[in-house]
Amino acid sequence: MPELSRRRALTAAAALATSAAALPAVTPAGAAGHHDFPWSFDEVYKGRRIQGRPAAGASHHHHAGYTVLVDGVELHVMRNADGTWISVVSHYDPVASPRAAARAAVDELQGAPLLPFPAN
């Protein structure tokens, strides 16, 4: 078997990169486009009512164009560039969807009420 040279390694890497670019991109659910939002949800999770829906007339207050409520109080959520979501409660733990962000917030709150986030 011939020894792997730098030239062959770079050629193989370039070929793999080219073929990978030809494949359709795999993105998290709802991350394909700015207006491709997740579905609405309304459920009880660990005794707390969590709701989510696309925001009507998105403004600077609704950065992600999506509204999430925990027991009727708005949970500020943001969408990252990679399609993941974070909230003001679990800011350093990105999740796949607004529903997952609401559930993570409920877990983090451990029964404490969600206080309204002051808008600038």
Give a nutshell description of this structure.
Pfam families: MelC1 (PF06236). The protein is an alpha+beta fold and 120 residues long.
Number of helices: 2
Per CATH, the class of the domain at 41-109 reads Alpha Beta
Radius of gyration: 20 Å
CATH architecture label of the domain at 41-109: 2-Layer Sandwich
Say which CATH homologous superfamily of the domain at 41-109 is assigned: protein ne1242 domain like
Low-pLDDT stretches are 23-35
- SSE string, helix = H, strand = E? HEEEEEEH
Strand order of the largest sheet: 1-2-3-4
- Roughly what fraction of the amino acids lie in strands? 15-25%
CATH topology of the domain at 41-109: protein ne1242 fold
Mean pLDDT: 79
Give the termini separation: 66 Å
What does this structure look like?
It is a single chain. About 11% of the residues have low confidence. This protein has a domain of 69 residues: protein ne1242 domain like (protein ne1242 fold). It is an alpha+beta fold. A hairpin with a 5-residue loop joins strand 5 and strand 6. The chain is elongated and about 65 Å long. It starts with 5 loop residues before the first helix and ends in an 11-residue tail after the last helix. It has a four-stranded antiparallel beta sheet with strand order 1-2-3-4, covered by helices on one side. Strands 5-6 form a two-stranded antiparallel sheet. It is built from two helices and six strands, in the order αββββββα. InterPro entries: GriE/MELC1_sf (IPR023199), MelC1 (IPR010928), TAT_signal (IPR006311). This is Tyrosinase cofactor. Belongs to the melC1 family. GO terms for molecular function: copper ion binding. Pfam families: MelC1.
